[in-house]
Amino acid sequence: FSINSGELELHEELGRGNYGTVKKVLHKPTNVLMAMKEIRLELDQARLNQIIMELEILHKASEKSEYIVEFHGAFFSESCVYYCMEYMDAGSLDKLVNFTLDDVVPVPGVDEEEMTWTGVPEEVLARTASSMVKGLKFLKDELEVIHRDVKPTNVLINTRGQVKLCDFGVSGQLEKSLAKTNIGCQSYMAPERIRSEHEGQSQPAYTVSSDVWSVGLSIIEIAIGRYPYPPEVYTNALAQLTAIVLDDPPRLPDDRYSEVACDWVAKCLIKSPSERAGYADLLAHDFIQADEGREVDMAGWVAKAMRFRDAKQAFGKASKVMSAPTAV
Ligand code: ATP
Ligand code: MG
What we know:
Distance between the termini: 57 Å
Mean pLDDT: 88
Shape: globular
Low-confidence stretches: 320-328
Number of strands: 7
Bound molecules: adenosine-5'-triphosphate, magnesium ion
Largest sheet: 5 strands, antiparallel
Strand content: 5-15%
Order of helices and strands: EEEHEEHHEEHHHHHHHH
Radius of gyration: 20 Å
Number of helices: 11
């Protein structure tokens, strides 16, 4: 727990969120690659100490679950918190799967079949769902922590095929210090949360069932490669939030996934929180039970998805530029 900035070698940026930047770093004394999140915060020493204490708890806990990213340490420097965690070398699921089915990247010398996006097979989806629920159940049972920010950018995967959660609200003090700027589009908030914020009631305690909603929505997004309330239809944040509260919940496409899979997701997305499935129900469901002990080549799938993602980044733009003149 003694990481300081001098021990770190900065590598490339991994991504950016509402609160700051995540960079890949090498911890030189141990030769371990880490992901370092920089969070800008103006805080006094007492607050900082409290945050460190809370993060220490997280440090001990994260080693006990294979579904939670490990926490390596944190330090403060020039009104920023630097938070070092396990580096997940395939990144977050949103960036790994945000493609449309049969999308093709024309990579010279690679056959088309290899460079066609075939989506997320049900077995991979089941393992992902199972890992998410097990991670959340661990947080709840062992730490009495509710995640509160379940979404595909906070579901990380590595080339060994392990799926782990990050960015859970373990540090109450850190949470309180962060300005909530994330009221824009792409809400993963459950309908009851949106309602209560809108009506300005004293907030009912955040419960696990709100996280279950976010799991359901995230699983659909991972399956179809885009946020389930598309921005073309719901053109602003209000329209989107209204749809979450008033419309029927989105469903997993039943032409690509089994009835069992669709049923599991539907049970996550029951709009009434008291009727929504709990973690025990979800784990006992056939969708997850079928995954127990099943051989799934997660590593193989991750490798294939990364090849597609990286090819898309390198060659995808070129193909768009070539077709641009016809659009004028
Ligand atoms: P928000 O700010 O709303 O939480 P976010 O989750 O995308 O959104 P960050 O948590 O700052 O924002 O993360 C930015 C990006 O960095 C993520 O989308 C993810 O792709 C990448 N990332 C975060 N943590 C890791 C990690 N441990 N290993 C690898 N990549 C990571
Ligand atoms: Mg995040």
